[in-house]
Specification:
This protein has helices at residues 2-12, 73-77, 81-91, 97-111, 123-129, 134-146, and strands at 14-24, 35-37, 40-47, 50-58, 113-114, 131-132, 152-163, 166-179, 183-187, 198-200, 215-226. By secondary structure, it is an alpha+beta fold. The strands form two sheets. Strands 1, 2, 3, 4, 7, 8, 9, 10 and 11 form a nine-stranded antiparallel sheet that branches. Strands 5-6 form a two-stranded parallel sheet.
Length: 227
């Protein structure tokens, strides 16, 4: 048992870096542009018949997020019982920001079931019905982060499903979180982490208005970093 705990601790200190180059046959180049934050970089270039993407990302490492978290009393007081009850559970035994983010992931995994059903996706509704899709997962995580004064914002784009080197972009939403030290990172509440399997669309773009498109993998790489 002690050996297993040591292995889990060692693994938690590692961060995965992945990179992906792909070509997509998208006829709306104004939808995408270069984007960069602390754990993600997207470069877009015009190509014949579509766009070339170069994407690099690191998974969110909790190793150095030992900042203490406190309750944002004003925000919490304005929330309904569903958010306050969820906060009580996520806040339990969370001494640091790393603990709190980890607890959010566990809570979402154990309490919220993914569904594509047409249900309300605000945080309170998702918590009461215990079901939601990517928008609902993002709304719940954003509300719980705000309960401890951590700012975040929703990000629209695509999650890239791959099969036999072919890419199927699926409309998706996740979060960008403001961390101490003026760092902005992507975090996906539905999939619990982040990788290079994402395309970020420009703000204000309606995903429903984008014509369906596909892509192919040109090159990909993945490595483990000891931070």
């Amino acid at each position: 048992m002690k050996v297993l705990l040591l292995l889990l601790t060692a693994w938690a200190s590692l961060s995965q870096e992945s990179s992906l180059e792909l070509f997509v046959a998208c006829r709306a180049p104004q939808v995408f542009s270069d984007y960069r934050n602390t754990n993600f970089k997207q470069e877009v270039r015009l190509a014949t018949g579509g766009l070339n993407f170069r994407i690099k990302s690191r998974s969110l490492s909790l190793r150095n997020l030992n900042h203490r978290v406190g309750t944002a009393e004003g925000y919490l007081a304005a929330q309904g019982p569903e958010v306050r009850l969820a906060f009580d559970q996520v806040r339990l035994q969370a001494l640091s920001l790393a603990d709190y983010l980890r607890n959010i992931s566990v809570f979402l995994k154990n309490r919220i079931e993914y569904t594509e059903a047409e249900l309300p996706q605000d945080a309170a509704s998702v918590l009461s019905q215990r079901r939601g899709h990517c928008i609902g997962f993002a709304n719940v995580a954003q509300a719980l982060l705000a309960c401890v004064g951590i700012a975040s914002r929703p990000v629209n784009g695509f999650f890239l499903r791959e099969q036999d080197q072919r890419i199927e972009p699926v409309p998706h939403r996740w979060l960008e979180i403001d961390l101490p030290g003026e760092r902005r990172v992507f975090y996906d509440p539905q999939y619990q982490d982040f990788s290079s399997r994402y395309l970020v669309t420009n703000p204000g773009v309606s995903l429903e208005s984008i014509e369906r498109f596909a892509g192919v993998v040109v090159r990909k790489n993945k490595k483990i970093l000891d931070e």
